[in-house]
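Re-run requested by the PI after the first attempt was lost when the workstation crashed. Everything re-entered from the original request form. Ligand of interest: 2-oxoglutaric acid.
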Amino acid sequence: MTATTKNELQVLTPEQVQSYHERGYVLIDGAVSDAWLRRLQTASDEFVAESRTLKASNKKLDLDPAHTADDPRLRRLTSPVEHHPSFAEFTLQGPAAQIALDLLGSPARYHHSKLNYKWSGGGEAVEWHQDIQYWPHTDFTPLTIGVYLNDVDDKMGPMGIVPGSHTGELYNLYADDDSTWTGSIRTTDLPQINLDSAEYLTGPAGSITVHNCGCVHGSTPNNSGRVRPLLLQTYSAHDSYPLLGVGANGATGRASGMLIGGGDPARSLTVGGRTMPAAPDWSRGGYTTIFDVQQDPKENPTHLRT
Ligand SMILES: O=C(O)CCC(=O)C(=O)O
């Protein structure tokens, strides 16, 4: 069986790793170098420029209803990794990948990315929610790494996270009458959660946030005069798999499932408390048929022959 190894390029301190595991999140002030920050900001600016040519949202760019060419208001760039080499490098090899490897061991598995803009002058709140219900996996290792591309203060709708909530209850994100998916924790459940303990993660541009998929988190509207771009990328342990057919799994882009860092892909898969050596990943090709695989005498000299 494959085992994860330590990330050779350790970026986080042992205290930061411990804080992530105990509290479910960690904030690393100004962690990204100036050179990387400029590359990410420049890439982001290209999409703001592109949005000026659009009148309506498309699969890539989600626009606020008040968006115009003269006064662009982006809500989200979907899958930045798929759309710009700087984002791809940052997420799959660069500083974000290194932090994921520190927390998950090597290799780790990339799941998806997004760039939430939260525009100035009222950019939307994100209601209290947990991520794992949106894209369930076979375990609770998935985590999301965020990078603030601008300085973020309390007025700009920073990420708010309830410490320790990552190991607590998993809440229902359907409406009170169970009819529709609202993606937010029911108001009737909120009194059970110690929202007063939420920590709001502010920091200078280049600060990094990490939160586990079980954390209760959300953010207030951005009522400041400054936009709050937050680049988010999600990873899991190498032997954690998204449950296809549930939530956003399967709608996460071509790079989803890619292993980062070094090492062999996992064979071991645990589902329902039972572990098996599962077949290789054939999602990118290589699968033939059971006949082909079983009839190769080199691979299987003992199979039944008449
Ligand atoms: O952009 C934010 O403030 C939070 C984003 C978030 O929680 C999410 O996209 O799941």
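Saved to the shared folder this time. Residues 116, 118, 126, 131, 159, 217, 219, 230 surround 2-oxoglutaric acid (CB under 6 Å).
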